[in-house]
Write a structure and sequence with these properties.
A middle domain of Talin 1; two-stranded antiparallel ribbon; mainly alpha; transmembrane; transmembrane helix; 73% helix; Alkaline_pH_Ca-Antiporter; Ca2+:H+ antiporter; single chain
Length: 376
């Protein structure tokens, strides 16, 4: 991952998160006129871009694959806070919000971000090369977490509807947290090399006759000092808090627009997932353009994994004081899309090489999911 060429961070990346937080404090709990809402949206977009910048600075300091975890975990923690906040304020109508948001995150990361990453690299190098050992392990963990947490509630008989009983929810939460913790250990300690980009000569061989100009360029960027990395980490947290806070401010407008357009409620979960995944999407795209597709895949699958492995335990704990049922089970259409995503993902990952075809297949699946979410 290439770090910005200047350290400390450029002034806009420093000022925008601070300005966004100040704005958040001013507008919180108030009814906003249209002009102010436009300003909030602009600051929201700026905070997202600032988050990507500071995540890259920190990731360049700590190295891979630790760097890929930073943005995924940070954004997911904030996502959990946003879901719980909306569930507390929304009442029984938000019983499926956690399910809708988590499933949206899985489909967008495993198809949208993965497909975009493969596409951006394949356009330049024809064949995309990555490590099937690490990517396959990540995909297997994501699919297992998704099945245990989102598919099984539809078929269990202990409680009515698509909900777990208390002991079942506790088991799903503990299992999710254990699997995620195990993956983090394997990725960063036990088999760290499985999640690093392939050697330069392997990447160069994927595009005969072309120079490996982008391969390894990030190695020449200076490593930022610890003080700069710590400052960027603090600003990353500030930017993410601003993103979620401003999104919460805009959530009534989002829900009103969805309702006025006659769209189903799951679309709210899709909007939340698209918003919180925007920093990771931009970071994955940047890495893919630099021939670091392995890092892009780490970001995509790591985000999906963290979205389930951290969200489900947090929601399970929050359900102790939340009113109403917690519906986690997917519907028939969603289960079909998840099964197709699993089959396509396995076929993409196993060879350790992909082309434009696999990229468009994943992007088509993402488009199908988004279309069916709005038109069930």
């Amino acid at each position: 991952m290439r770090a910005p060429t200047r350290f400390p961070a450029l002034a806009p990346a420093t000022l925008v998160p601070l300005l966004a937080v100040v704005t958040l404090a001013v507008v919180w709990g108030r009814v906003l006129p249209p002009v102010v809402e436009v300003v909030v949206v602009v600051l929201l977009a700026g905070a997202v871009l600032a988050a990507v910048h500071h995540a890259e600075v920190v990731a360049h300091r700590v190295g891979e694959p630790f760097g890929s975890l930073i943005l995924a975990v940070a954004v997911t923690v904030i996502e959990v806070g946003l879901i719980i906040t909306l569930m507390v304020s929304g009442g029984p109508d938000t019983a499926t919000l956690a399910r809708d948001t988590v499933f949206a995150a899985v489909m967008i990361t495993c198809n949208g971000i993965v497909g975009l990453s493969l596409l951006l690299t394949a356009v330049r190098r024809r064949v995309v090369v990555f490590n099937p050992e690490g990517t396959g392990a990540a995909l297997a963990t994501v699919l297992t977490l998704a099945t245990l947490s989102l598919v099984l509630p539809t078929f269990t008989t202990g409680s009515p509807g698509s909900a777990f009983t208390g002991p079942q929810l506790a088991f799903a939460a503990v299992s999710s947290l254990f699997l995620y913790a195990t993956f983090v250990f394997v990725q960063n300690v036990r088999h760290r090399d499985y999640f690093l980009p392939p050697p330069r000569e392997v990447l160069a061989s994927s595009s005969p006759g072309r120079r490996g100009d982008a391969v390894g360029d990030e190695e020449h960027a200076p490593v930022p000092p610890m003080t700069t990395a710590l400052g960027s980490f603090a600003l990353l947290i500030v930017a993410l808090v601003a993103v979620v806070g401003l999104a919460k401010v805009e959530s009534p407008t989002i829900e009103a627009v969805v309702a006025d357009a006659g769209l189903p409620r799951p679309v709210v979960g899709v909007v939340i997932a698209l918003l919180v995944l925007l920093p990771e999407t931009l970071a994955a795209a940047r890495n893919a353009r630099r021939d670091r597709t392995q890092i892009s895949l780490n970001l995509a699958l790591g985000s999906a994994m963290a979205s389930i492995g951290l969200t489900i335990p947090a929601i399970a704990v929050a359900s102790l004081w939340l009113d109403g049922p917690l519906v986690l089970g997917l519907g028939a259409t969603q289960i079909v899309l998840l099964g197709l995503t699993a089959a396509v993902g396995i076929l993409t990952v196993m060879p350790g090489r992909a082309t434009l075809l696999q990229a468009w297949v994943h992007l088509s699946l993402c488009a199908s999911y988004l279309f069916l979410a709005a038109n069930p």
